[in-house]
Amino acid sequence: MLGKRLATAAVGIPVAVATVWAGGWAMAVAAGVVVAIGAWEFYRLSQRAGYGSPWTLGILGAGALPLAAQAGTRWTLAAVTLVVLSALAGQLAARRGRVLGNAAGAALGTVYVGLFGAHWVLLRQLPEGMAITFLVLTSTWCADSAAYFVGRFLGRRKLAPDLSPNKTVEGAVGGVAGGLAGAAAAGVYFGLPGAWVVAGGLLCALSGQLGDLWESALKREARAKDSGVVLPGHGGVLDRFDGLLFSGVVAYYVFAAWTGGL
Questions:
Q1: Which of 18, 166, 223, 240 lies at 20 to 30 Å from 94 by C-alpha?
Q2: Burial grade of 188 (CB within 10 A; 0-12, 13-18, 19 or more)
Q3: Is 175 within 8 Å of 140 (Cβ atoms)?
Q4: What letter does residue 143 receive in the DSSP assignment?
Q5: What is the rounded distance in angstroms from the CA atom of residue 198 to the CA atom of residue 214?
Q6: Alpha helices of 72-128 — where are they, by DSSP H?
């Protein structure tokens, strides 16, 4: 398992770095593909949990949001609104039971995966956007890796056994330390202010682990070990990008306010 994780990282990290470095429509298209796969995994989990969600609409809507974000924030709002309205109308047309749960699940797939993922495009557009995006990436990835290894070898006390029995308090603390270390590395490379490094490292480590727990809750309700099988050693796209979905949103609004990008 560890070998597969490292092999996937060896391929995926250079691709992610090149995509962020390019920015613009190249990053938006790449994010759209990743988000669409993540939305597909979300709807599979939703169906396993007993909810009927419009797969095609939700997947297309989620995948379009990073492109809408690249085109402008008004297009993002328009895309979200259209998908949610369509989800509500679709439930009326289907005339099935559990209208509330089904419609909510359909809308959530687009907002959680699509809208959160689109914030990475917005993050890259900020002043100093490339440096900030790399800070968030390295911090979240390092936090995730540190939490995994510290929890595996030193973990004793359970963090949230009802959601994810393998996560520990020691792993969470290690994740925060790893997030700060990853942010520091990016900060030194790009010459970012120390306050950005500390705040970014802490926020990304904490929000990333929150995103991980949220996805664990989804899988627990769906009684699934992984969200998919796309990434060897990691499971699905949501298994690998769950923390990034949360940290990207938090980091965008913090750094947008800091840099005057709001």
A1: 223
A2: exposed
A3: no
A4: H
A5: 24
A6: 73-94, 99-108, 116-125
What type of residue sits at position 43? Answer: Y
Q: What letter represents residue 128's amino acid?
A: E
Chain-centroid distance of CA 204 in Å reads 11
Locate 34 and state its tokens: 């990743």
Integer Cα distance of 163 and 116 in angstroms:
22
pLDDT digits (tens, 9 = 90+) for 69-127: 999 878 888 888 888 887 777 777 666 667 777 878 888 888 899 999 999 999 999 99
Over range 43-71, report the average pLDDT: 85
CA dist., res. 67 & res. 120, Å (int): 11
Give per-residue pLDDT as tens, 17-30: 899 999 999 999 99
Query: How far apart are alpha carbons 82 and 87 in whole angstroms?
Result: 9
CA-to-CA distance for 172 and 213, rounded, in angstroms? 11
Domain ranges in the chain are 25-125, 128-262
Alpha helices in 165-259, H assignment, sequence order:
169-190, 194-222, 237-259
Q: Are 53 and 106 in contact (CB under 8 A)?
A: yes
Is 68 within 8 Å of 78 (Cβ atoms)? Answer: yes
Residue with tokens 């500390």: 198
CA separation for the pair 218, 204 (Å, rounded): 21
- Cross-strand bridge partners of residue 164: 160
Among residues 112, 108, 114, 103, the alpha carbon closest in space to that of 35 is found at 114
Q: Are 242 and 112 in contact (CB under 8 A)?
A: no
Q: DSSP label at 35?
A: H
Which structure tokens are listed for 134? 């790399």
Residue type (1 letter), 44: R
